[in-house]
Amino acid sequence: MTKEEIFAKIKEILVSDFEVDEAVCTPTASLMDDLDLDSIDFVDMIVKMKEYIPERINPDVFRNVRTLQDVVDKLEPYVNKTAAAQ
Q1: d(C-alpha 20, C-alpha 37), whole Å
Q2: 67 vs 47, higher pLDDT
């Protein structure tokens, strides 16, 4: 799965499940300031991505995540590691 595809899935989740305006879902969007997500929302968003990441991810991986692109960059190795194993 490419980073663009991962971004598209996250954006889809944000729009459908968190009622975030699609227009503000850009790679540089701040999770807190632009998308108004708190830490619980962020965890929920990652849980909704579990379909693509069946292995457990250490929460410390996300410690410095601030933007949607940061999320994509952190998830990409897990998504592709899982895909390679299938």
Answers
A1: 9
A2: 67
First to last CA, the chain: 13
Q: How far is CA 3 from the centre of its chain?
A: 11
Query: Which whole-number Å values give the CA distances from 23 to 15, 44, 74, in the listed order?
Result: 10, 21, 23
What integer is the mean pLDDT of 60-79? 94
Alpha-carbon distance values, 37 to 65, 74, 79 (Å): 12, 17, 22
**Domains of the chain with bracketed CATH:** 3-85 (1.10.1200.10)
pLDDT value, residue 73: 96
What 3-state DSSP class applies to 30?
strand
3-class DSSP assignment, residue 47 = helix
